[in-house]
Amino acid sequence: MAIRAGYEIRYETDVATPMMAMLSVHPSRHQDLLTPHRIVTAPDVPMYDYIDGFGNVCTRLTMPPGALTLSCDFLIEREAPVEPLGADARCHEVADLPDDVLVYLLGSRYCETDRLADVAWSLFGGLPRDAVLVRSIIDHVRGHLDVGYQHARPTRTAFEAYREQVGVARDVAHLAIALCRCMNVPARYCTGYLAEGSDAPTDFAVWLEVYIGQRWHALDAGSGDAARERILMAQGRDATDTAFTTSFGRATLTDFEVRTAISIDPLVP
């Protein structure tokens, strides 16, 4: 079985505007692609890719005046099932963490560990340093925030979400990540596709990963469940590092559609 995924995104701008896009499948999933992954633009414009400091594929281009559509369609093999976060998974001592994991303990634009440290330690300081701690943080975030699109605000931080007790999916992830980091559990922000079993238009998904028991575990802060069909696009400290597009000038998003569908026969479009 495979997953067919893709998108069609349209922008309008009055002048030539540089853009950076994180709309490619993450290199860690390249071996699972069953068809080429290629971003197509209309009109055709030059593009080139580079790998950023978090291992993400970044695409650089310049939008011409008028409208520009970015689209993609691909097939990818379903990821092999991973062992869920077991109750016996232990948190690491900071001194024992790999060098490349330490950055995910630090505060960031949307995850202010300095403003949430006292909150985190008052809530979770007495818990054992294992999977119970992580589950308790996620359960607390789920119960603390009223989640809904009517609460969307792109500038909201984890601390503001905690104080306002409202948010959307990215706020749930940011608050869970910030609280984990306050408790010395490395956590990072992830974006990509979430296959729901139909080809109805959807949105890009966000989730978090925590480093515990010597590996990264993907968790959905909304349900605390790892058993979801995900396709990773980008990962980083927070939404700043993983924005699906960043325009360096005024550009208006006029159309946005993301598609995912689980296909029994990968040869059938």
Automatic annotation (TrEMBL):
Residues 161-223 form the Transglutaminase-like domain. It comes from the Bacteria. Transmembrane segments: none annotated. Coiled coil: none annotated. InterPro entries: Papain-like_cys_pep_sf, Transglutaminase-like. Gene3D superfamilies: 2.60.40.2250, 3.10.620.30. SUPFAM superfamilies: Cysteine proteinases (SSF54001). PANTHER family: BLL5557 PROTEIN, BLR5614 PROTEIN-RELATED. This is Transglutaminase-like domain-containing protein.
